[in-house]
Amino acid sequence: MNRAYATFRLPDGRSCSLGVGELVGRLWSAALQIDDPRVSEGHAMLSLRSGDLWLLALRRRLAVEGRSVAEVRLVAGQRIALAQGIELEVLAVELPATALAIEAPGLPTMILPGLCSLQVRPQIQVFARYEVDAACLLWDTDDGWRRAQGGVTTPLAAGDTWSIEGVPFRAVEVAAGGAGPSPTRVTGGIDPPLRIVTAWETVHVQVGDAPPVIFAGVHARILSELAALGGPAGWEVVAREVWPEEEDAWVLRKRWDVNLGRLRARLREGGIRTDLVRAAGTGQVELVLRHSDVLEDRS
């Protein structure tokens, strides 16, 4: 497989390979599903950062050698505890020189997870799982990538182009070393630097030397999730971590839109630049930091 992935052994002896962007948790759609009440719906996610694979805690923290951590760089032989009595052993970490990614108008170049579903209505969305009504499916196999659209399955390789309801897509090859998302940092601007401390249920945002603005509840959880994910993510990925009990997709979207609007209003009221949380028309949302900003994730 010409993609970054890690292989884990579960307590029951099963082994499972996890690709970038894929989840560990109780959700039926999790690539590594663990049916145990001690594991949260979306417990952790595999991420590629600066050429290394990391396992990121999403709801509950991880434990490595007895230490509680929010993230861990993966190496073969590691043992990572998700909860008391539930431990994963890292069997292998695969980091090829290059990885397959996709591009589309308004969509950041995105390294493909092992399976993803594409939608373009009402906006471009990429889900790292199988969606029954997806307009297009992409997945990898031992002998290459596949694309399924309109009932037809074809091989997929770098340089291939296709369209979904008039929206053009292109597969590209990118260097895996140094690849992977990180909190988006931009230059310019005359606003004072921000110091952001996230702790899941509370988030402190300090503008320069002013007293920190404190966020709690849903708004804090949104900011904490974006900090933990470390780069652009689909709104639904974030929303399902904030409201794990909500199964109705329409209700979930309404909750997300309403609370994202309120969060931005609260940022404005606190004298914090509203582009700190940026939502693109592609369905991606991200935390946008400037080079002088400091982010401390204690979630």
Explain this structure to me?
It contains 3 helices and 28 strands. It is globular. A hairpin with a 2-residue loop joins strand 10 (about 80-85) and strand 11. The protein has helices at about 215-230, 235-240, 250-270, and strands at about 5-10, 15-20, 25, 30-35, 45-50, 50-55, 60-65, 65-70, 70-75, 80-85, 85-95, 100-105, 105-110, 115-120, 125, 135-140, 145-150, 150-155, 160-165, 165-175, 185, 195-200, 200-205, 215, 235, 275-280, 285-290, 295. The model has no long low-confidence stretch (mean pLDDT about 85). The chain folds into 3 domains: about 5-95, Sandwich (Tumour Suppressor Smad4), CATH 2.60.200; about 100-175; about 185-295, Arc Repressor Mutant, subunit A. The strands form 6 sheets. It has a 6-stranded antiparallel beta sheet with strand order 2-1-11-10-7-8, with no helix packed on it. Strands 4-3-5-6-9 form a 5-stranded mixed beta sheet, with no helix packed on it. The protein is about 15% helix and about 45% strand. The longest helix is centred in the last third of the chain and has 21 residues, at about 250-270. By secondary structure, the chain is mostly beta strands.
